[in-house]
Structure formats: structure tokens, C-alpha cells
């Protein structure tokens, strides 16, 4: 049996995708900081969007609990072997996206950079004892590369299901109207 995603879960999925895409674009555009404590508007945006990503993922998790649904799908039309793999991938994506802003926040704090949420709320510095600023920087950068790789594999898997195995894995994550249009095209 195929388990469908409800509209709110779909909305959360695509919102996270949009925010992560913006976050990487801002990261690429923001100036490199070389020890000075003044942060640019783009860097402030990077901090704010990063914190927003944690908030949205937490709301997505709460929605899964309230909605009495598993955080990731438990039933699907994929084979019994690939299902644990898909679940592991989904957890890995969300866990990395929670770890990433925490590392970024600790990295910013270790360099005495102020972290605020769109200028509305100032966060206290986050100090992780025993980890130096360069180590935090290396971890933040490395995790960035890992997230890109995970998303690429995830997107490849979604397209593989749609174009090679011709099942509904991609379709059921799409907005209803688009899903119906694509279902007709797939037949
Ligand atoms: C999911 C959320 C996030 C993603 C995907 C992300 C991604 C990135 C990427 C790709 C870079 C460039 C790394 C490099 O040059 O090697 C970067 C740099 C950085 N990020 Fe993040 N980041 C996130 C959240 C945050 C948060 C919440 C903060 C702080 C509150 C933060 C602080 C920083 C700092 C301080 C830099 C270094 C800027 C520089 O010195 O050039 N990041 N981030
Ligand atoms: C930052 C980017 C992305 C992240 C973090 C992400 C994460 C996730 C997660 C955690 C799930 C499990 C359901 C849930 O909890 O929401 C999921 C499902 C899914 N995602 Fe993504 N996703 C991303 C981008 C994409 C993109 C670009 C596509 C389209 C090609 C896509 C297609 C799908 C599909 C088809 C499913 C359903 C899989 C199934 O039911 O087994 N995702 N994604």
C-alpha cells in the first residue's frame, strides 16, 4: 500500500528545499570574513536563514507527531530492501540540516560574531568547549559538502523512481494538481 503525504508535510518539504537553496546561494555570495567582527547584510541573512531552517525542521517533526504519522514514510511502493535506505537518507538529510546551523552558530560565536534572527532577536554566543574556531569552520564546510552530496543522491533517487521504475514516489511528494497532471502523463 502507498502512503500519501498530507499537504502540510509536502509544504514543509518544499519549504525546507527552498530555504536550503537560498542558504547555499547566500553562502556563495557573502564576503569571506577575515577576522573583523563586523558582519555584512548577506552574512546576517545567512545566519538568520540558517536558524529559520532549524525552526522549520522542528515544526515539521512536531507536525509528524501531532499528525500521528512517522517522521518519514513507513510504507511505500519501493522494495523492502530500499525502504530502510530511503528512511536512513531522509533522517540523514534532516539531522545534517539541524547540525549545520548549530555548527555555524558555534563557529560565528568562536569568532565573536553577533548572531541575530533577522535583527528581531539576538542569540547568546554558543560555545562548544574543546573545539577551536578553525575546527568548527572545517566541520561547517565539510558538512556543507556532505549535504550537497546527500541532496544529489536524494534527487537522483526521486528521478530514478519516476523515469526508470515508473512508480509514484516522486508524484506523491508533489502538490496535488501537479501530481495529477504527471500521473496522466506517466500512464
Ligand atoms: C542549513 C544551514 C546552513 C548552511 C547550509 C550553511 C552553509 C554554509 C556554506 C556552504 C558556507 C561556506 C563554507 C566555506 O566557505 O567553506 C558557510 C559559511 C559560514 N556559515 Fe553557514 N550555513 C548554514 C547555517 C549557518 C548558521 C545558522 C550560521 C551562524 C549562525 C552560519 C555561519 C557561517 C559562517 C560564520 C560562515 C563563514 C563565513 C566566512 O568566514 O566566509 N551558517 N555556511
Ligand atoms: C534540501 C533539499 C531536500 C531535503 C532536505 C529533502 C528531504 C526529504 C525528506 C526528509 C523526505 C522524507 C519526507 C519528509 O519528512 O518530508 C523527503 C522525501 C522526498 N523528497 Fe526530498 N528533500 C530535498 C529536496 C528534494 C528535491 C529537490 C526533490 C525532487 C526531485 C525531492 C523529492 C522527494 C521525494 C519524491 C520524496 C518522497 C520519497 C518517498 O516517499 O519515499 N526532494 N525529502
Distance between the termini: 19 Å
Order of helices and strands: HHHEEHH
Q: What overall form do the CA principal axes indicate?
A: elongated
The assigned CATH architecture is Up-down Bundle
Query: Oligomeric form of this entry?
Result: single chain
Structurally, the number of domains stands at 1
Helix content: 55-70%
Determine the CATH topology. Fumarate Reductase Cytochrome B subunit
Rg on CA atoms, Å: 19 Å
Number of DSSP helical runs: 5
Low-confidence stretches: none
Structural class: mainly alpha
Bound molecules: protoporphyrin IX containing FE
**Largest sheet, if any?**
2 strands, antiparallel
Nearest-integer average pLDDT:
87
In total, how many beta strands? 2
At the first level of CATH, the class is Mainly Alpha
Chart the SSEs and their pairings:
Blueprint: H1 7-29, H2 41-66, H3 82-110, E1 115-117, E2 121-123, H4 133-163, H5 176-186
Antiparallel strand pairs: 1-2
Helix pairs in contact: 1-2, 2-3, 3-4
The structure holds protoporphyrin IX containing FE (2 copies).
Structural features, described:
The chain has 187 residues and is mainly alpha-helical. Strand 1 (115-117) and strand 2 form a beta hairpin. The longest helix has 31 residues, at 133-163. The chain has a single domain (7-186), classed as Transmembrane di-heme cytochromes, Chain C (Fumarate Reductase Cytochrome B subunit, Up-down Bundle), CATH 1.20.950.20. It contains 5 helices and 2 strands. A two-stranded antiparallel ribbon has the order 1-2. The protein binds protoporphyrin IX containing FE (2 copies). One protoporphyrin IX containing FE is lined by residues 20, 23-24, 27, 32-33, 46-47, 50-51, 53, 97, 100-101, 104-105, 107-108, 115, 140-141, 144, 147. Residues 20, 23-24, 27, 32-33, 46-47, 50-51, 53, 97, 100-101, 104-105, 107-108, 115, 140-141, 144, 147 line the site of one protoporphyrin IX containing FE. Residues 5-175 form the Cytochrome b561 bacterial/Ni-hydrogenase domain.
